[in-house]
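Input sequence (95 aa), recorded before submission:
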Amino acid sequence: MTYSEVHWKLFNFFARRVLAVSFVVGGSVMAILAVSNILPGGTVIVDGIPSDDLVFRWVTFLLPLILVPFGVALFKAAPFVPRKQRTITKKKDLT
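Predicted structure, token format:
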């Protein structure tokens, strides 16, 4: 195996497996921890002051959930394989 092949195999492993799993697990855990924010009486700290604004409360719950579909999409993505380097050839004279 050449250096280039090893490089792209490691890139695909880390981008498609490690990063994808951390997006799914991290987004799920953060969303689970933020469930208390959307329940009645939940508050969110905004600029050091507790706020019961509904928009802030829902954003703290939904924003981590965006990571989950990104992680699933990364996991299902096809491995990246770069094109082989093309050699530049001179055009032949047609005359």
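Checked by second reader. The first strand starts at residue 44 and ends at 46.
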